[in-house]
Write a structure and sequence with these properties.
This protein has 202 residues and is of the alpha+beta class. It has five helices and eight strands. The longest helix is centred in the last third of the chain and has 22 residues, at 164-185.
Length: 202
């Protein structure tokens, strides 16, 4: 019995050692991070890999002030600065024009845009934003000063695996998937079919 237990311990230690030394931190995260909001591979395409990676996020479905957040971080330990891709979704009061003007005013570098079925995206080198019309539960469209909408902003901080268009695309995809998740969790009134992805940035 003791030999069997010892073998199990050694086997377990061997498996742990293999995972620790032959897999990367991002590989050990869930396939969909932040409670199913975003595909892990999107974060992996943007962030440099290390032995440790962390993910987290939360949703606060409290009606008109609904928010949802998501982040993925790679570093040698949780305290170090590391590299981060993160995003926040918030239910606000804005038309697509006022949203675009505000985000564009804070942008730096060349701007890219994409849209599909009323869903709009704006991308700068290290930041992206998504706009989705969304009336919260218990509200009527005419109650908004401008228009009810779910607005997502995402960005990277620190070193990244890629640059240029591939990085823009990863951040935009991260923001888009968070928007799609938040739209469902926030119970937006408008029935909407989200495409698998937005048109690619060029």
């Amino acid at each position: 019995m003791t030999k069997i237990a010892l073998c199990c311990i050694l086997l377990g230690a061997g498996v742990f050692g293999f995972l620790e030394f032959f897999t990367k931190g991002l590989d050990r995260l869930p396939a969909k991070v932040c409670h199913g909001a975003v595909d892990r591979e999107i974060a992996a395409s943007a962030l440099p890999d290390t032995r440790k990676a962390y993910e987290g996020g939360k949703s606060d479905p409290s009606g008109e002030t609904f928010t949802s957040t998501c982040y993925v971080k790679t570093s040698s330990n949780f305290i170090s600065e590391g590299s981060i891709i993160s995003g926040e979704a918030e239910l606000g009061d804005a038309t697509s024009t006022s949203w675009s003007n505000r985000f564009t005013a804070s942008g730096n570098g060349k701007k890219f845009e994409a849209s599909s079925g009323g869903i709009k995206a704006i991308s700068y080198p290290e930041r992206s934003s998504i706009y989705v019309p969304c009336t919260p539960p218990g509200k009527k469209k005419e109650q908004a000063r401008q228009a009810y909408a779910l607005i997502v902003e995402a960005r990277t901080i620190g070193e990244t695996r890629v640059t240029g268009t591939p990085l823009r695309q990863a951040i935009t995809d991260f923001a888009y998937q968070l928007a799609r998740h938040a739209y469902k969790v926030g119970e937006c009134q408008e029935p909407r079919k989200f495409p698998a992805e937005l048109p690619r940035l060029h």
